[in-house]
What does this fold into?
Amino acid sequence: MFVVGTAGHVDHGKSTLVKALTGIDPDRLREEKDRGMTIELGFAWLKLASGIEISIVDVPGHERFIKNMLMGSGGVDVGMLLIAADEGPMPQTREHLAILDLLGVNIGLVIITKKDLVDQDWLDLVTLDVEEMLKNTSLENSQILAVSAEKGDGIDELNNALDILISGLPKPANTGSPRLPVDRSFSITGFGAVVTGTLTGGVLKTGGEVEILPSGNKARIRSLQVHEKSQDEVGPGTRVAVNLSGIDHVDVKRGDLITTPDWLDPSTAFDAIIQIIKEAPRPLRHNHKVILFTGTSETPATIRILEGNHIDPGTSGWIQIKTQEKIPVVRGEYFVLRDTENTLGGGRVLEPNASRRKRNDHTTISRLQTIAGGSNEDIKFNALIDIEPTTIAELARTTGSTVTEVEDAIVTLESQGRILPIGTNQEYFVSVEGWKRLENTAIQSLSTFHSSYPLRQGMPLQDFRGRLKLKSSPFNATVDSLIKSEKITTNESTIRLITHIASLSYDQEMEVGRYLKEITNNRFSPSTIEDIDIELLQFLIERGDVVRVADEIVYPITAYEEMESKIIESGNNGREITIASVRNIFSTSRKYTLAVLEHMDSKGITRRVGDSRFLR
It folds into this structure.
């Protein structure tokens, strides 16, 4: 199925032509019928002689409703540009044509309407004007037809031309990632929330779970309807109504995106290539405030120009768009920029979820050039180096790509020696240069730590993670690969270079011996005299000779283990453990008893209930 969208100046006969073609009046509002002017998006459908069924989106032509026109132009396969024979090309004709151009709609027909109102000589002149207007646009080579919708003249020829044109189009792409930009959201008694839109990218099925972006709310598809007929499954290139369960229609609005869950992360910044139209009233400048139109959404945004300080009308450039709100966009998606009154230009998304770029930086511009015209693997590689180490799923979400596209790129990049997998299950990927940086940072951090604290077994794992600046899962994958490469080794709480072995000098061994003897003399109430160097004490703790239960209280390991064992025994079968009962067992003071019990609390062996404790 394919979608045809109308375009053109107000009162040039778009809705009348749609009704003549389909028998359906796309103007559904009372105000539209009273004023004879389309305000909101209208919809109709038609089965062509070949059996191909098409949807038609009728858009407003008045300049006051240009944003509604933009919201209806996304997902259009074929454009129908209409020009009235008695007026010829008008301001909104040119603006609508520019918008079709910016949105990449390069397949279409140009229809001169109201031919019954002029003679042939005038019609010929208008046709020449139209041909001139179409030069250097996406519809330059489109067929031009003249019709009269009121009299039915030329309608059959138009129907046939549409059939021929659409029959030659490739089937809408199914990437496995459906996207339905919502253009209407309402409620039907007995059914609940219903949304409509033009589906691209994949399939929706009855009973399937969907995610509403940018909110992240989840819902389930109760039913699907295409052209007033129920369907179990709907493919890309289709106008569809979706009945949702598990959500109220007020929580889904025009501009939202319906998609399958957990593959697309909404962006607040994305890199793009922009084309400023020749008719733009002014250049696009750095930090220019604009309205961004993507899909069916309308979002305030700020433009960061990445090369130079402005982009003149009729030229293109590299930009980053910073939005006030999160919006779901994918690589390759088209967008349009407007200010309060004028269409300024439009372009393509190059990299969603982009980090802040340096301006007038050769590396940045070179990277964007690669993304704009590069291969799938080049594009994914450029995205990977921003978020490495990363997984296939994360890279798909970040780039707005399918998992299959990322998997294909990963295979190629690995074979080219540009990336490598890390982790026990090799689920994370990192560039070769990125891995070198991680490895160097790890080795240098541990070398510095060992030099500063030669008696310690190793650096605490959390401190080491902070040096690498990684989240938990990629950190674990990195550590696993460093261990595998025999650069480091770990225990439960520390990490060290494999070449580092903490050892004591003869004098330090003597000092340690004296200290251990001192705290062993009264093993359940050891001395609290701080007469040992803190690094030596830490060495004894890490070696397992002693247990520090409080700032001033250190037990020999044998004494502590005996205390812990007897306390556990005293609390078996749900028996209460009190400070007094423990103090009596070991003939020690409240200070020592409380310190041991609090230490056991911290280890999760006991839990405190009021002044008592119980085994967990």
User: Anything to note?
Assistant: Confidence is low (pLDDT under 50) at residues 29-39. The two ends are 63 Å apart (CA to CA). The chain has five domains: 2-167, 179-259, 267-365, 374-502, 512-615. The longest strand covers residues 316-327.
